[in-house]
Amino acid sequence: MHRRRMLAMLGSACAAGGAGCAAVGMSGGVDGDVGMTATAFEPATITVAPGDEVVWYNNSARAHSVTAYAEQIPDGADYFATGGYDSERAAREAWDGMNGALTTGQTYSRRFEVPGRYTYFCIPHERAGMVGQVVVEE
Length: 138
Hints:
138 residues; alpha/beta; Immunoglobulin-like; four-stranded mixed beta sheet
């Protein structure tokens, strides 16, 4: 019984403490597939198999987005963007620093079913070159 109480307390502390309790595995010490620095996705390109899920993690102090370039995803693939927007235009128009933003410690995940290249960007840091790519290969 004492062990259960201790585990519950540790779980609460991790939830309150945020990213410091996450598993090691990615740049910044947080588990995930793609991290976010001030103006870059790390790694910039990730290769996965069809059906795999990619998890982005904001381990920077800035707000970011994960927004697909509509013309740079495979035919037949669903559009994706943080905030759940169904088009690049909608995501851009809604961006105000909060709508569709991932703040420090937040994650976004997406499952990729259709093989091909998916190029995406961060709306507020696009001009700084914050662009990434998911390659889905058999």
